[in-house]
Amino acid sequence: MNIKPTAQDIEEAHERVSPYIHYTPVYSSESINKIARAEIFFKCENFQKVGAFKARGGMNAVLSLSDEERQKGVATHSSGNHAQAVALAAQLQGIPAHIVMPSNSAKVKMEAVRGYGANLIECEPTLQAREETLQKVISETGASMIHPYNDYRIIQGQATAAKELIESVNEPLDYILTPVGGGGLLSGTSLSAHYWSNRTQVIGCEPEGADDAFRSFQTKTLVPMVNPDTIADGLRTSLGEKPFDIIKEHVSDILLANDNEIAAAMKMVWERMKIIIEPSAAVPLAVLLRNKELFEGKKVGIIISGGNVDVGSLPF
Length: 316
Fold this sequence. Notes:
CATH class of the largest domain: Alpha Beta
Number of strands: 10
Distance between the termini: 44 Å
Strand content: 15-25%
CATH architecture of the largest domain: 3-Layer(aba) Sandwich
Helix content: 40-55%
Radius of gyration: 18 Å
Shape: globular
Structural class: alpha/beta
């Protein structure tokens, strides 16, 4: 399938994954609303299976495989949340999973992948090493590759989070903010807003130290990520081609926040909402707080992408 996912594709993906994932809650915080001068609706994917929205795409991709493909198992590369999503989906379907992870991945994420029974292969922390190691694994095993974001099955699955957010909030949202790394969540979110809440603007949120999506969006040309430097470990990856095509068409803007702002937003959610979120998940709130005048008086949906934190290395 080389055309962008339709509303029907996303509805079918939602039906496919629903028995296997959580319909996560949408929370608000009066104190954060006051600080932000906006009405914020947090879609809490930190309470999702594997602690992140990635369970949606991983599950959809694995459930979309043919019987023949399932027998040979699945393979992917990921720094964490997608790795866990594919490992869990494979475990639930009783098929092998081979997961390539950079050696500097959060230990909590690596342990979780092993806990789901996957074969974990460590590699050097570069995109080239990840891709080369993955190709070797695929040629040895015949496993089906499930790319972390450059895959329409993944995008369809990730789109279901925004679909649920739109359904949960009875009034139209002015904006939905999501983090952007590879672009699966942002592109999926923008499609759901396009199909089910056309007046809602979707904005991607990115760390200054890993701003390839911002630069790609500005120049309308895919700019690869080089030496990302940010506490938001889930966003240290290059924007994918398939997500970028959708983002160019349906995303209003991509805005940045620095690591200090990200850490402050993360701390604010921990303290004010009493929920654990990871640095990548704090980027949209950091962006909102940096750009208060843009969002003042607006209804804003934020997808909290995950809550897998190495508590031994908190940024506050």
